[in-house]
Amino acid sequence: MAVTEKKETKETKEPKESKKSTGPKGKYFEAVGRRKTAIARVRLYPEDKKLGFIVNGKVSQDYFGTDELATVANAPLRKTKLTEEFGVTVKTEGGGPAGQADAVRLGVARALVKFDEELRLRLKKSGYLKRDPRAKERKKYGLKGARKAAQWSKR
């Protein structure tokens, strides 16, 4: 039997080219919003007013599906009457539609405060700058869920 030797060849791996964002160029104000397990990275573009409100590459109405959730996400801009002044892009992940909409709302509000500190009081009164701390409670050992237990029996 002939023993064949294997030659070790190191293949030179070429670095992968990073995909450049197809988003608008120019100055922007960025902020992060969170709710439950949803995270939203929001960018406000003051120069690009025609951009609209884009969430994960789609118009917010199409992405969220319902008018209610799209309205929630856009609430800080409407409250400050700056809807037509900014182009907004959002990248969001995790959670469900409602959690994502609330995360976007917090991110937009924080970005507006970075744009103009005087908007802080109005947004704070409306409750848009408060991160909602409610999240799912963990399951405990010996129980069926976070709090549900087996039926208690005296004997």
Task: Give a quick rundown of the structure.
This protein has 155 residues and is an alpha+beta fold.
Number of strands: 5
Number of continuous helical runs: 4
In the CATH hierarchy, the architecture of one domain is 2-Layer Sandwich
The separation of the N and C termini measures: 76 Å
Content of β-strand: 15-25%
Describe this structure in words.
The chain is 28% helix and 17% strand. It has helices at 60-64, 67-79, 97-115, 120-126, and strands at residues 29-35, 38-45, 53-55, 58-59, 87-93. Strands 1-2-5-3-4 form a 5-stranded mixed beta sheet. α2 runs parallel beside α3. The relative contact order is 0.18.
What keyword list fits this structure?
4 helices; Ribosomal Protein S5, domain 2; elongated; 28% helix; alpha+beta; 17% strand; 155 residues; five-stranded mixed β-sheet
Task: Produce the secondary structure layout.
Elements lengths: L28 E7 L2 E8 L7 E3 L2 E2 H5 L2 H13 L7 E7 L3 H19 L4 H7 L29
Parallel strand pairs: 3-5
Antiparallel strand pairs: 1-2, 2-5, 3-4
Helix pairs in contact: 2-3
